[in-house]
């Protein structure tokens, strides 16, 4: 079984597709698909399954990427992925998350509207939006002159 096939099995299984249909699509026998699902805790009814996997991911028991079981370390940060490969694949598919995690986020208060906003990677931002910047910079100056 290739990585691509394994990935496809998990994806389809989580959508509630049956073993036989999955097998037809990925080009493997129903038994191989079923065995793979069994060893990755992907058996059972679709609705229950999706819920279970989601729950297990939230509780840190299942891999965020493939749904496989995770052995949590006794110390240190809890793991979200079963392997380094899954971690890398997941990040590859979520470029937005990469950007946000790399840049620290700061909660700041807008100098124009007073609303709190989150700034990624820049703690010196003064306004929540360009709009507020424009208002503050130009409208205010205008008022001062009157
Ligand atoms: Zn995994
Ligand atoms: Zn604002």
Describe the protein.
The chain has 146 residues and is mainly α. It folds into two domains: 3-101, no CATH class; 103-145. 53% of the residues lie in helices and 7% in strands. It contains seven helices and two strands, in the order ααααααββα. It has a two-stranded antiparallel sheet. A hairpin with a 6-residue loop joins strand 1 (105-109) and strand 2 (116-120). Helix 1 packs antiparallel against helix 2 and helix 2 (19-26) packs across helix 3. The protein is elongated. It starts with a helix and ends with a helix. The mean pLDDT is 84. Bound molecules: zinc ion (2 copies).
How much of the sequence lies in strands comes to: 5-15%
Indicate the radius of gyration in whole angstroms.
Answer: 24 Å
What separation lies between the terminal Cα atoms? 75 Å
Overall spatial form: elongated
Largest sheet, in brief, is: 2 strands, antiparallel
Small molecules (ligands, ions, cofactors) in the structure: zinc ion
